[in-house]
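Let's practice the habit of predicting before peeking. Look at the sequence and jot down your guess about where helices and strands might fall. Then scroll down.
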Amino acid sequence: MKIVMAIIKPFKLEEVRDALTALGVHGLTVTEVKGYGRQRGHTEIYRGAEYAVSFLPKVKIEVAVPSAMVEATVEAIAGAARTGQIGDGKIFVTSIEKALRIRTGETDDDAL
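Done guessing? Here is the structure:
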């Protein structure tokens, strides 16, 4: 079992969710986050004054999938989130030692 974590642009969330649903991924966790990578933020003008925005709004998606579905999940997220512009985001994959569905007591792959 693996956790696929993706940091993407907020307006791409629905496309990524649709791609994961089509793949058969049943659940995901979404968190609104702020951060920056190579784009280092940007400047904006508000009421005539210019100011720097150091941290840009992003969305973090976390999906627990069986090991056999990792590559398909990563490809689905990358394909749906890609705009070709700087700041498209990153995808990280980490291992899960144990999973338990609290309601039924199912464990590991059955709990996903």
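How did you do? The two ends are 9 Å apart (CA to CA).
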